[in-house]
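Input (structure):
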């Protein structure tokens, strides 16, 4: 009995030793491509989702936004509130922002762009806008005359005019902030490009400049952007803020994302559908390979059964064969993925409207997909093996 159980291992060893090595390499390569397709699609969509989330957090909302309580337009004494917020466990930094109900004007053209008053030093700690300057410089504390604008306001990139923009605003040009019947001129200090449309259509001035436009508004804020130490701890931090008596309504970055959250959900759905398609492609690939192989070995299978080798042992041989093929395909796919594909897209990320996207790999997901390919391979190889073993021994030997 023990010697019988060794037969499949003997047969598969002999097969691998005697088979055409180029054919084996081609089979393994095809399976590696099927595996890479599965991993690449998932990594790409994970990268898109991560990039989208990071852009929202790092350039616009922070992890948490605190806005005035219902019935109020502003958070009063925003400096004191920020100090209280920063006392909460889990909070890294916080910064007040005041969005003006105003528009911008440039050389007679008007644009409904959001202008926000910030404290440049505090804003630096909660957003990455200061590190995304492509022209000029970031705002300096106390600057009462300067303004920085996003790429979509400036209106030109790589020599091409952006739609719904001013056309081409350069550093040193004068922009007019129109607030009601009042008009206030500002010098453009710099242009930033975060590669996130929700931020690149904004303009920033200092809180000192806000005092010039609307005296007495310097201590007020329309929101406070809060950066937490760990993404995912937002609800715990909100509980801390409420316990400290910070008044207002709280929105996590997921809630503040609004429509972008539905885009992320769509990516998750598409990823799931393409994953199913990827498994189907892997299954069909292995099925065809094994079906052709078993068809060519019908006579050999018939002879083995004729000399007394039980059918289930012959079937086990082909199952082992699919395991070997699948394992080698996953191994080669892993080597190609982490040796070539992953480093390439890390050096040259995809550039899409929400930012630069690299591939994001979850170790647990990667391993589970590798095991799934092997399992799919076993099931796909088992079907043609069963079909081949149902052929009568004499018909198999005679090739009928």
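Output (sequence):
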């Amino acid at each position: 009995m023990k010697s019988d159980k060794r037969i499949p291992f003997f047969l598969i060893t002999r097969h691998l030793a005697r088979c055409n090595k180029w054919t084996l390499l081609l089979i393994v390569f095809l399976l590696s491509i099927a595996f890479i397709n599965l991993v690449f699609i998932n990594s790409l969509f994970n990268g898109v989702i991560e990039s989208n989330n990071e852009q929202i957090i790092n350039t616009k909302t922070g992890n948490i936004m605190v806005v005035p309580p219902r019935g109020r337009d502003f958070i009063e004494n925003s400096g004191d509130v920020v100090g209280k917020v920063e006392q909460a466990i889990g909070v890294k930094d916080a910064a007040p922002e005041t969005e003006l109900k105003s528009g911008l004007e440039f050389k007679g053209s008007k644009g409904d762009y959001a202008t926000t008053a910030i404290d440049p030093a505090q804003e630096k700690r909660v957003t990455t806008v200061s590190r995304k300057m492509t022209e000029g410089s970031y705002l300096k504390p106390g600057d009462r005359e300067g303004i920085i604008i996003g790429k979509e306001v400036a209106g030109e990139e790589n020599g091409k005019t952006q739609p719904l923009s001013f056309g081409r605003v350069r550093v040193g040009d004068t922009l007019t902030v129109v607030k009601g019947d009042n008009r206030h001129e500002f010098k453009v200090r710099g242009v930033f490009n975060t590669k996130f449309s929700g931020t690149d259509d904004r303009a920033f001035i200092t809180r000192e400049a806000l005092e010039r436009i609307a005296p007495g508004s310097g201590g007020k804020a329309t929101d406070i952007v809060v950066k937490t130490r760990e993404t995912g701890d937002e609800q715990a931090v909100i509980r801390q803020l409420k316990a400290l008596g910070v008044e207002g309504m709280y929105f996590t970055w997921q809630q503040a994302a609004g429509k972008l959250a539905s885009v992320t959900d769509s990516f998750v759905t598409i990823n799931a559908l393409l994953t199913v398609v990827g498994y189907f492609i892997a299954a069909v690939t292995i099925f065809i390979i094994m079906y052709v192989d078993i068809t060519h070995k019908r006579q050999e299978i018939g002879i083995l059964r004729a000399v007394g080798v039980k059918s289930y042992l012959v079937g086990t041989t082909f199952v082992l064969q699919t395991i070997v093929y699948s394992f080698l395909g996953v191994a080669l796919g892993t080597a190609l993925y982490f040796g070539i594909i992953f480093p390439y897209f890390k050096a040259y990320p995809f550039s899409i409207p929400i930012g630069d996207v690299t591939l994001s790999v979850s170790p647990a997901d990667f391993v589970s997909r590798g095991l799934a390919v092997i399992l799919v391979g076993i099931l796909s190889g088992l079907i043609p093996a069963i079909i081949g073993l149902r052929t009568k021994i004499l018909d198999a030997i005679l090739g009928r």
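Notes: The first strand starts at residue 64 and ends at 67. The chain has two domains: 2-55+261-398, 94-227.
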